[in-house]
Specification:
The chain is an alpha/beta fold. It has two domains: about 1-45 and about 100-209, Ribosomal Protein L4, Chain: A; about 55-95, no CATH class. It has six helices and six strands, in the order ββααβαβαβαβα. The chain has helices at about 30-45, 105-120, 140-145, 165-170, 185-190, 200-209; strands at about 1-10, 15-20, 125-130, 155-160, 175-180, 195. A six-stranded mixed β-sheet has the order 2-1-3-6-4-5, sandwiched between helices. It is elongated and about 95 Å long. The model has no long low-confidence stretch (mean pLDDT about 95).
């Protein structure tokens, strides 16, 4: 059994042909946990990990003992940069670190297959014959998305992204153009619609095989 996609032109008309996505490239039974692991790992890798606080050893000042040890009726204090003092250091505060999580390549592939399958089954994938513009105009990308009925919230997958297409989509906040080799599970699930060219689908199938 195969999933059939009707090919459209960028003008919104049917191109008069269809493409079948074979079931061996899809996954409908397992992969839910793989999808979660893949998305969590991707978002973790995107974290900068630069949050930092100063410990009492990093805060300037505080070298002199604030007052003598005994005889003045106050609690003993060795430094004005103690964590219990205002302006002092921070105990167990965040330090620069990497949040990256390792995910097995087979798990990543399973997750992408499951995510793509879910988008296909939900009829949220639109296949077009090709995508290129003669000039880098946002209105051309907007007109193309409107013509094929996906609106301005879409992931556009191509085999090779041309400069005109990339620039045409740059000013649309909810449109992302990616090469097929750069698509991951997170991007596949983020947008309301997935638009893919025939060449892009062929390249994606090679990754899913």
């Amino acid at each position: 059994m195969a999933t059939t996609l009707t090919v459209k032109t960028i003008a919104g008309a049917e191109a008069g042909k269809s493409v079948e996505v074979q079931d061996e490239l899809l996954e409908r039974v397992k992969g839910e946990q793989a999808v979660k692991d893949s998305v969590v790992a991707f978002l973790a890798r995107m974290r900068s990990g630069t949050a930092a606080t100063k410990t009492r050893g990093m805060v300037s000042g505080g070298g002199a003992k604030p007052w003598r040890q005994k005889g003045n009726g106050r609690a003993r204090a060795g430094s004005s940069r103690s964590p219990v003092w205002r302006g002092g250091g921070v105990v167990f505060g965040p330090q620069p670190r990497s949040y990256a999580k390792k995910v097995n390549s087979k798990v990543e592939k399973l997750a992408l297959r499951r995510a793509f399958t879910d988008r296909l089954d939900a009829e949220e994938v639109v296949l077009i014959d090709s995508l290129d513009f003669d000039e880098p105009k946002t209105k051309k990308m907007t007109a193309m998305l409107a013509a094929i009925g996906v609106g301005e919230n879409a992931l556009v997958i191509v085999d090779e992204c041309t400069e005109n297409v990339e620039l045409a989509a740059r000013n649309l906040p909810n449109v992302l153009v990616l090469n097929a080799h750069a698509v991951n599970t997170y991007w596949m699930l983020l947008f309301k619609k997935v638009v893919i060219t025939e060449a892009g689908l062929e390249a994606l199938n090679k990754r899913l095989a």
